[in-house]
Amino acid sequence: MTLQRAPHRNDELVEDCIFCKIVNKEVPADIVFEDDELVAFNDISPQAPIHVLVVPKAHISTVNDLDEDHAGLVGRMVLRAQALAEARGIEEEGYRLILNCNAGGGQTVFHIHLHLLGGRQMRGFG
Ligand code: 5GP
Ligand code: ZN
Questions:
Q1: In angstroms, rounded to a whole number, what is the distance separating the alpha carbons of residues 56 and 53?
Q2: Is 113 considered catalytic here?
Q3: Ligand 1 pocket mutation pick from 20, 44, 111, 125 by most atoms within 8 angstroms of CB
Q4: Is 1 part of any domain?
Q5: Number of C-beta neighbours around residue 116 at 10 A
Q6: What range does the domain containing 80 cover?
Q7: Residue 125 lies in a domain
Q8: Is 107 in the pocket of ligand 1 (CB under 6 A)?
Q9: Which ranges in 41-118 belong to alpha helices (H)?
Q10: Which range (9-13, 18-22, 101-105) has the least confidence?
Q11: Does the beta carbon of 29 sit less than 6 angstroms from any atom of ligand 1?
Q12: Residue 45 Cβ < 6 Å to ligand 1
């Protein structure tokens, strides 16, 4: 099987990016958190009772585009997901955090986002 490349790299086709449009309030979303750096909103097609996407406001296409300069940002994405899980009362029962990279990893929106999934028992990977 040939894995497809991402349709664009960082800074290309940003104007067509659905998550940039959500960040810029050009497309509505059910936003549950926002600060200068991050926005979090409910997934439009939830895979669990709680399915939130934690998204940097800056357009970064894939995990492959991250470097050392993004270490703080990625850490704060995880900590934001942790805080959202706690706010929803699922920190003790547990939850799943996912970063998909490129087509073979199941990535469909090429603006990085951390999935927070919870509210049901997670099993395996699929
Ligand atoms: P990926 O497969 O790239 O890791 O995840 C993309 C996620 O974004 C999917 O779970 C999909 O349901 C969600 N998504 C795609 N378009 C929209 C949208 O316009 N609004 C919201 N809220 N979620 C979206
Ligand atoms: Zn974007």
A1: 10
A2: yes
A3: 44
A4: no
A5: 28
A6: 66-92
A7: no
A8: yes
A9: 71-87
A10: 9-13
A11: yes
A12: yes
Phi, psi of 69 (to 5 degrees): -65, -20
Domain assignment present for 39: no
Q: Which two tokens stand for residue 14?
A: 């940003």
Give domain status of residue 21, yes or no. Answer: no
Counting ligands in written order, the one closest to the CA of 52 is: 1
Atom 1 of ligand 1 has which residue's CA nearest to it?
A: 107
Q: Whose CA is nearest to atom 4 of ligand 1?
A: 107
Number of domains in the chain: 1
Q: Which residues of 49-75 are buried (b: 16+ CB within 10 A; e: fewer)?
A: ebbbbbbbbebbbbeebbeeebeebbe
Reported as a pLDDT band with limits 50, 70 and 90, residue 9 is very low
75-125 pLDDT per residue, tens: 999 999 999 999 999 999 999 999 999 999 999 999 999 999 999 999 998
Name beta bridge partners: 95.
118
Q: State the DSSP string of 45-59.
A: S-SSSEEEEEEESS-
